[in-house]
Structures are given as C-alpha cells and as structure tokens.
C-alpha cells in the first residue's frame, strides 16, 4: 500500500504528515518514514519530533453561504499527527529527494512535495 508524504512549513519547522486520520495508519506511516535513508545515508526523519498540528485552509463555501445568510466557519481544518523536521534537515530532504527510492519504500509524494 502506498502512503503519502505531505509537508508544510509551520513556523520554524517543516511539518511532514501522511494525511491519514486513524492512529494505526499514522503509526505505520511514521515507522516507514523514520527508516528512510537518503542520498548521504542519513535518516532525516529519525530525530524528528512527533507533533500534532492543526492545519487550516479557507472555506470555499463561505461566500455562497454568506449569500444565503447562513453562518459558516471561515476556515476549515483538522488536527494531524506528523513529524517536525528542522530547517536544516528539511532542506537536506528536499535537495536529496529521490522519487524512485521513496516509491520502493511505499511512499508517494504529496502535491506540495512534487512542486
């Protein structure tokens, strides 16, 4: 089963997550990602701190809801568990990115990681 790897800057850390919500799947993702070895032989995710983060994005229905006088939350979001990577390790991750190595490990890049 392919597992996704997403990443977003949260303050001074690069927060990497799977997008999964069930604890067993997040644990399985974390186990696989922590074992990844990159070009210099290092395991960039091994020292990463496990962290919860609430990610929010604009609600696309907000304007339509306002037109109908229906109050809706301005932002949608959910709390995700992931690994917080230091800026130094985040840049190493991006510079040593290898789609083929990740694919062999059962990881597929999320949209923002491919761009």
List strands and helices in order, with pairings.
Blueprint: E1 3-10, E2 13-17, H1 23-34, E3 49-58, H2 62-67, E4 75-85, H3 87-95, H4 99-104, E5 107-109, H5 111-114
Overall description:
- The protein is an alpha+beta fold and about 120 residues long.
- The chain has one domain.
- The protein is built from five helices and five strands; from the N terminus they run ββαβαβααβα.
- The chain has helices at about 25-35, 60-65, 85-95, 100-105, 110-115, and strands at about 5-10, 15, 50-60, 75-85, 105-110.
- Strands 3-4-2-1-5 form a five-stranded mixed β-sheet.
- The two termini are about 25 Å apart.
Please give the oligomerization state of what you see. Answer: single chain
Ends distance: 23 Å
pLDDT below 50 for ≥5 consecutive residues: which ranges? Answer: none
Cα-atom radius of gyration: 16 Å
* Number of helical stretches of at least 4 residues: 5
Shape: globular
Count of extended strands? 5
Number of discrete domains: 1
Helix percentage range: 25-40%
**Alpha-beta classification:** alpha+beta
Outline the biggest β-sheet. Answer: 5 strands, mixed
Mean pLDDT: 82
Strand content: 25-35%
Strand order of the largest sheet: 3-4-2-1-5
SSE succession: EEHEHEHHEH
């Amino acid at each position: 089963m392919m597992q996704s790897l997403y990443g977003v800057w949260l303050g001074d850390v690069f927060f990497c997550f799977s997008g999964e919500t069930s604890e067993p799947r997040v644990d399985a993702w974390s186990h696989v990602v922590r074992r990844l070895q990159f070009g210099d032989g290092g395991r960039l995710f091994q020292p990463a701190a496990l962290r919860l983060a609430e990610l929010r994005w604009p609600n696309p229905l907000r304007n339509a809801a306002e037109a109908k006088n229906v109050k809706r939350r301005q932002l949608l979001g959910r709390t995700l568990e992931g690994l917080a990577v230091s800026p130094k390790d985040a840049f190493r991750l991006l510079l040593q990115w290898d789609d083929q190595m990740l694919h062999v490990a059962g990881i597929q890049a999320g949209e923002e990681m491919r761009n």
